[in-house]
Write a structure and sequence with these properties.
mainly beta; 155 residues; four-stranded antiparallel β-sheet
Length: 155
């Protein structure tokens, strides 16, 4: 497969042929100072959780039926996932086996964003957190990491 890359005005165009389809990617060239992305990556994560990706995906799939905007995740001796829809007076709760280092934490995530992150990760995952209003880090390694911002929970 060949790939053509060229500049047109302020765009960078990438064209390639894949399985008989012409794919074209248009990227806008930035002329401005890019913000320091390292500022949003928490460095002081005092909580670390190891768990099964498959079990977490299964629980999220069930919980988002009740509330598709946010689910609560309480990390203590295990992971407790909760979902509530006050309009329909429905709740969902389940527990997943997990190994946690650090203090207990309750944090909220949008289940669709979390599901998207998890589908790109291997079977065994690690989540690092510092508190419930800072980004969680998924599977930090020398290859990179995935960040997910939490949602606010009304307790």
């Amino acid at each position: 497969n060949s790939c053509d890359i060229y500049k047109q005005d302020k765009n960078i165009i990438i064209r390639t042929l894949s399985n008989g389809y012409l794919l074209e990617f248009v990227c806008l060239e930035l002329d401005e100072t890019y913000p320091d992305y390292r500022q949003v990556i928490p460095q002081d994560n005092i909580i670390s959780v190891d768990l099964s990706n498959k079990a977490l995906l299964k629980a999220i799939d069930k919980s988002k039926v009740i509330n598709e905007i946010k689910n609560s995740f309480h990390f203590n001796g295990c992971l407790q996932i909760g979902s509530e829809n006050t309009d329909l007076n429905q709740t969902y709760s389940t527990k997943i086996e997990a190994t946690k280092k650090g203090e207990d934490i309750t944090i909220g995530f949008n289940p669709f964003f979390l599901e998207t992150v998890l589908k790109s990760l291997p079977e065994n995952i690690n989540i690092e957190m510092s508190n419930n209003n800072r980004a969680a880090i998924f599977n930090r390694s020398e290859l990179g990491l995935t960040l997910l911002m939490p949602v606010m929970l009304h307790v």
